[in-house]
């Protein structure tokens, strides 16, 4: 499966520049245009479905392939990974993958979802400092 991530960032909800990311095919992973029935997320992300038991292996396989494409896992959290890649002209592109499942019960054969979205702008740009509060 090759996916071009052309959607808005989940947080900023502003149009992102096209990112051509080759997402490798992994057995047991299929496209899910509904994002697990989450219509709002489906408008912002490209989603796939697998099982709860397989999701860690899918992320590991994808991360290894993304590294071969020049992408580095640069952060995230328990259920999110942010990838960045330097641009030839300076700055960085980025995208994120969010993992989620239905409900809070661990069920190895139950569906688990991965939502992929581009992060707009230069993800390596220095963040503006917050001015000190007036006293």
Descriptive keywords:
135 residues, mainly beta, six-stranded antiparallel sheet, 8 strands, 34% strand
Report on this model:
- The strands form two sheets. The chain has a six-stranded antiparallel beta sheet, covered by helices on one side. A two-stranded antiparallel sheet has the order 1-2.
- It is mainly β and 135 residues long.
- The longest helix has 14 residues, at 55-68.
- Mean pLDDT is 83; it is low at 1-16.
- It contains two helices and eight strands, in the order βββαβαββββ.
- A hairpin with a 5-residue loop joins strand 6 and strand 7 (92-101).
- The chain has helices at 39-42, 55-68; strands spanning 3-5, 19-21, 30-31, 46-51, 72-77, 80-86, 92-101, 111-119.
- 13% of the residues lie in helices and 34% in strands.
- It is globular.
Task: List strands and helices in order, with pairings.
Blueprint: E1 3-5, E2 19-21, E3 30-31, H1 39-42, E4 46-51, H2 55-68, E5 72-77, E6 80-86, E7 92-101, E8 111-119
Antiparallel strand pairs: 1-2, 3-4, 4-8, 5-6, 6-7, 7-8
């Amino acid at each position: 499966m090759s996916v071009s991530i052309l959607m808005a960032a989940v947080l900023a909800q502003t149009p992102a520049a096209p990112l051509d990311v080759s997402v490798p095919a992994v057995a047991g992973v299929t496209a899910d245009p509904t994002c697990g029935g989450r219509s709002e997320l489906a408008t912002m992300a490209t989603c796939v479905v697998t099982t709860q038991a397989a999701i860690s292996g899918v992320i590991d396989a994808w991360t290894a392939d993304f590294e071969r494409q020049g992408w580095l896992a640069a952060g995230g959290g328990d259920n999110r990974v942010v990838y960045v890649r330097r641009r030839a002209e300076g700055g960085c592109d980025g995208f994120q993958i969010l993992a989620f499942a239905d409900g809070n019960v661990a069920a190895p054969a139950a569906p688990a979802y991965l939502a992929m979205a581009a992060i707009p702008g230069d993800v390596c740009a220095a963040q503006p400092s917050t001015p000190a509060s007036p006293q």
